[in-house]
Fold:
Amino acid sequence: MRSELTRFPLVKALLKNRWPQLLVFIVMLAGFLFAILSGFIGTPVGSSNFGIVFVWIAWWAILILVAVPFFGRGWCAVCPIPLPGEWIQRGAILEPPSRKPRWLNLRWPNKLRNIWLQNLTFTLVALFSSVILTTPTVTAIVLAGMLFLAIGMSIVFERRTFCRYICPVGGFIGLYAQAAPLELRVKDKRVCATCKDKPCYNGSQVGYGCPWDVFPGGLTRNTYCGLCMECLRTCLYDNIVVNARPFAADLAKPSTRLDETFKAFIMLGAAMIYAGVLLGPWGALKLAAYSVGTTAWLGYAAAFLALIFGILPAFFTLAVKVGQRLSRASTPQHLFSKFATALVPLGLMFWVAFSLSFVLTNAAYILTALSDPFGWGWNLFGMAGIAWQPYLNALLVPLQTLVLVGGLLWTVRTAQKVGTEVRVSPIPVIVFCTLATLVMLGLLL
Amino acid sequence: MRRSEMLSRMLVIAGVLIVLLVPLAVRFYDGQGIVEIHGRMAETGGWSPSAIKAQVGVPLHLRLTSDDVMHGFAIGQSEMAAVDVPPGKMTELTLTFDKPGTYTYYCTRWCGLNHWRMRGTIEVTSDGLGAPQPVSPPLYVTLNLDIDAPHPAPVTPLERPSALRGAAFTALLPPSYLTTDYYRSYSPAQAFNDLRSDPALKSLNNAQLWDIVAFIWQSNTTPEGLAAGKQLFAQNCAACHGENGAGNGVFADKLAAAGEKSSEDMTGAKGMQMKKPVNFTDPANMLGASPALLLGKTIRGGMGTGMPMWGSIFTDEKTWNIIAYLYSFHFTEVTK
Structure:
């Protein structure tokens, strides 16, 4: 049940033309650099600094509440981080690349062609998040570091290796993009099979080869397609389409990859820990998370790592094993990873519920930071004096409950489908997910 | 190169330059002639800059901001109302000084353990139009008091003295005891001993003499002065000495626990000892202290305890009001 959006001439024209995307890129890049600048030279007070407010409140709200759930990797399509690197790599912004590579153009090592590094970078950011999220200079360093790393990797490696293998955000966007009701696919795989030059992957005079190192003809999931639309521009046979589709369509094909499985655990555990640390009433926990390098922080980091890499996977393994025992089934391959597919909607809804809380609580800062982005006393839009107040406070708890319960139902349905496919009882996995949801409800409400 | 490529490059470069250069340019031109002062808790730097210059009669434009928590800003020895300095916001202020000298600006909010040390100076010069006015030495210097020496009261009352009861003996009291000079120069215990040895008061018992002491102390203040002293105490002293003067303010235990380390990072404060704040409700300590002695301790600070110096902050009147209020912890009616 899919609806091809690119059948509308206006949509197709907007997506094929480079200018709309480029203009958005430029605005995003300007905003990104502005955030870095404000982090370095603006007020060190996070709630009054554009960098903190726009990255961790405004951007995060748009990303997790809108972009990821509804557009999957839609953010990646306009993310400004790869723009400078690609310009250097290609030697052009719009013009087709020269046949001869300008730089080293190395292929990314085979052993690293997974998202383990993204799991690592996200975990690192998560461990230091209390400081990153509240300290403008640190946020600026992280953002600038990502930008320069992306540029450096564009010089050394081919395509967007930073986005594909390093970006701490890209990893989880890819995971949750599977749940999004939007996809880029080919109309007819036979056309791709017979296409000789495969310009969608190799590039041509009308566009670049897939920056995400994906062959569109083989796309079955959203995970690694960055929605950059290059293949739409280069396909000689008009065989690329963008579809609206049911939510979570990709989850019908459970993942068998352990790196993606652990990404699901990292995201699930991180949402629970963030809910406890950032929204909970435990001052000592907040202090420990903030006091990087102290014994208390080491304890916090150890607990964080133990939860996402030990406790959650261990209990999940137990649940899968019990399900197996209940079903008296033989051991299908990748059972652990396949059942972990159920954690995709669960984790996504955990993040939505968590984000609702701090986004609505802190949204007032967006208005003041817009008027006085550096905390220098400016009042560009007359909103610098707006007093802080939480928004939609009365709706928060019902919304979060709805999101978490809805997420659980979605998860149960996903687990049932996986159970049917692998012929193993999903009930223990459902119990695991229910308990996790109860914990999250307890932390948030 | 195609025109579209050229245009796209120009747009990217223009976008980058605009967001980077425009704020810097505005910042540069907007800041001309303005001194921007950043406030941080004393432990992490205090006021920055902590020393600025100004000229008599020339408006000094200040832009104040806090880099961490809520601070307040006021100029010592002046009647200027304190202004709040919220974090991440700019508070603009223009000051004009009519006399040369070194003025102290200080934080008026309990921002942290060492809030009291969050100070800076404004050196105001007059272009040769006049030197700073000579300052007369404070009373404790004139009296040659050793304000660091212990001052236990050799005698203390068995019950709380009452100024109201003491007023009943006014007719017996020689007028010399009621002068301001006498009040400021002697401790209550000394006054008691003087009264005890005075033949005119021979018939009175010890409790009655202590009531007279309370009356002498009350007669040297006013209800308005006491109210002002109470307010100043609450704003500036209670955090350490406690709202009721018992030395148990919200910072008292933390300061003692932090010890010397709490002030190690502060300029000029290294090696300072930290002791628990004085308990003003202890009669053995307080009734042995004369107002002149307390004046010295207040305006000079120190004493190896972590007590800040308030001489550059409070006017004489304010200091005497606080001192009068301190005795109210021992004398009934003084607080009325």
